[in-house]
Amino acid sequence: MQRVIVVDLAGQRRQFRLHEDAYDALRRYLDGARVRLGDDPDAAEVLGDLERSIGDRLAALAGSDDRVLDAAAIGSVLDAVGAVDAGAAPATAGSATSGVPELDLPPVRGAIGTARTPRRRRLYRIHDGQQVAGVCTGLAAFAGLDVAWVRTIFVLLTLVTAGAFLLVYLVLMFILPVAANREEWLATMVAESDGGARSS
Amino acid sequence: MDTERFQFLRRGLLEFLVLAIVSSGDVYVGDLLERLDGTDFATREGTLYPLLSRLRREGLLDHEWQESTAGPPRKYYRLTDAGRAELQAFHAYWASLSHLIEALGS
Predict the structure, then answer these.
(1) pTM here?
(2) Is residue A126 within 8 Å of A142, Cβ to Cβ?
(3) Contacts of A38 in chain B (CB under 8 A)
(4) Is the confidence at residue A189, as pLDDT, over 70?
(5) Is the pLDDT of residue A140 over 60?
(6) Range B4-103 classified under CATH 1.10.10.10
(7) How many CB pairs under 8 A join A and B?
(8) Taking every pair of C-alpha atoms in chain B, what is the biggest distance, in angstroms?
(9) What does A21-57 look like in DSSP terms, one character per residue?
């Protein structure tokens, strides 16, 4: 199953849910656009313009029921918007080449770029696969461990402490926010790290 | 009929067509795309935005944000005085160019 990534785009009040490969395609497009714009003094503004146009088109595709967009949908949108033609701007190196350059670059200034910064993991309870209240499934996702290991450790610690460790579970149960499943947990994380930075 | 030479010509002419369309009043990128669609100058945002930002930098047009009925606010473009003068100069030059081509023989 594909991971779903939630992104903000400049100028859009709503967020979009993208399959991971669709997100990658969008990111490649924006990175490529930035390379093609080169030292255009208005590069940031043009990138914002493109992000807004892409957002408008994605909004039409996602509809009011917030459909998850796949790579084909993003592909059709990026095709309609078209690769940046910096030839229409003052000559910049490489403007005549076609095909998006594959370069490892720092993130673009648009909100989509900020999703590339390391994501902050947050501890959630995760209902999907829970035995009691999802604390162990949440801890497992957080620590990147198999949930069986987390449960075993929990049970052992509870036995060793003659039940006192059970309090830890109860406390976590009350203080942790909840995600329905792993996908939602991932999405929350990305959405949080995306917050703010919108290009003007 | 459609040679690479013509393509080269079109590339240089696009900015004057953009100025001509913008001269009709407040237009946003969707209007530009629509007006050019189906012509030899059909283009896409990837080309238009860098062009519009350059024309603005050159002081030929300006934009202002306006709320739209559907979706986020849009940039509406309009010509500056310099832009209008540039477009007029282009019209005059184009006319003299056609005269010249006619005069040089068919």
Answers:
(1) 0.62
(2) no
(3) none
(4) no
(5) yes
(6) yes
(7) 69
(8) 54
(9) HHHHHHHHHHHHHHHHHTT-TTHHHHHHHHHHHHHHH
Task: Choose between A121 and A5: higher pLDDT.
Answer: A5
Residues of A in contact with B29 (CB under 8 A): 49, 53
Domain boundaries, chain A: 4-116, 125-176
> Looking at CA atoms only, how far is residue A80 from chain B in angstroms?
7
* Nearest Cα residue to B78 out of B62, B90, B89: B62
Nearest to A133 by CA among A164, A177, A165: A177
Per CB-CB distance under 8 Å, the chain A contacts of B48 are 88
At residue A28's C-alpha, the angle toward residues A110 and A97, to 5°, is 110
Domain ranges of chain B: 4-103
The partner residues of A179 in beta bridges, in order of sequence, read A126
A29, two tokens: 């497009």
Residue with tokens 């792993």: A182
Facing A82 at nearest CB: one of B15, B46, B51: B46
Q: What share of chain A is helix, strand, coil (3-state, %, to 5)?
A: 50, 10, 40
